[in-house]
Amino acid sequence: MSERLSGKVAIVTGAAAGIGQAIAEAFVKEGAKVVVTADHNVDGGQKVASKLGDAGLFVQQNVAKEDDWKKVISAAEDKFGKVDIVVNNAGIGGKNGPVEDLSLADWQQVIDVNLTGNFLGVKYGIQAMKKNGGAGSIINISSVAGLRGLPMAAAYSSSKGGTRLLTKAAALSAAHEGLKVRINSVHPGWVDTAIIPEEVRDSVVKTIPIGEMGQPSDIANICVFLGSDESKYATGAEFTIDGGQNA
User: Fold this and answer.
1) What residues does each domain of the chain span?
2) Which residues are known catalytic residues?
């Protein structure tokens, strides 16, 4: 442990499993205190927070609800005194298929969680960081689908592409305000989690130049860098971690 995040307090949404869990665990390993949030997988979120010991706290949260963000920020400040880092990781894949067959409800569900949820995380993260000297790091987990279209996933691609430009616009706004709040996006490619069906794994790997899927820890490691003071000159940037697929 190198204590790269010593003294920092982070909120990691969607941290009950997979990439979010890896980020939360990596943050604590580097000295941070972490508020773990999840909506449906409450049991998983509680287990992750319990594993983190005194450095962890679980709060149930629907990221698309403003009141839930207020609740999470208050819980972080009550327990740990401040907020230094927000990782907007929570997201859903939604319904796939031709655009013309996508219902408005299907579309709205994905946009609400993946894009509106990130907007609220940025909004309330900045507000909390203003109370803490106007400094901090917001990390929006997007996707390679936010860099180019993903067939049969119009809502998902739109939400992730929207997150990419939300990141840039918010980063510039914070800079124009004179804040030391850095806002960056992370764009994972194929990451080895339970979400990927076994029957497609072999075909997926064949499309990755380095010949293997990423691990949740690969995403967590870049988030440690972005949460730490090592990345103090990075804002409005996008970090693609995809094994070379977009090279």
Assistant:
1) 9-239
2) 156
